[in-house]
Amino acid sequence: MKLKKGFIRIGLFVILVAIVVSIYVFLSKDDGEKILVSRQNILHGTIITESNFDEYVYTINTDKSMKPDDVIMEKEQIIGRSVIYDIAGNTIITDSVLSDEEEIAIHMNNPVISGIKATDISQFSGGIVRKGDYIDISVIDNITGACADVLENVYVFGAYNSDGTLIEDNNGYAMIINILIEKEHEQHLNSMLSKGTIRICKHEKRYADE
Description:
It contains 5 helices and 9 strands; from the N terminus they run αβαβββαββββαβα. The chain is an alpha+beta fold and 210 residues long.
């Protein structure tokens, strides 16, 4: 009886080992395609760089039939691009959640980069403005105190700390931003900024649409 139980235990152990080996072989098979997956939550506005790539992203093999059409498969496809939606951890990264200036500029007639500096973080929505955000710009007139709308739905090309360091994640408070605007709007923007105190808020309609 004891001998029979011993054979049963050995048999169960062999089956268990076979199952584990099969799972390992399935997950590590080479006939799948490599895709990029988020290692942790990635907040919108985060720029994926060479230095933070491994912190935010890792590679897995997946069955070809399960691969989304616009999935990101190569590291080169994501480096230098910003996240335009919050991405949860362990999520397949697709092109639709990433943005870059080249794509945005295509839809503009004569795009230029203009820099704006704040004297207080309250001017830039408490300093939470990040690359990839869309913002509305207004100015409070120094003489009349009236608030005038200047530009809306403006793309933030870069957000920087007061020392000029690029903010690549959720750490730090934006005090300087570069924005992408039409050349024809640049003179109007500079003229309005000279008349008063700038106020920036995130473009509500855009985020409501998302």
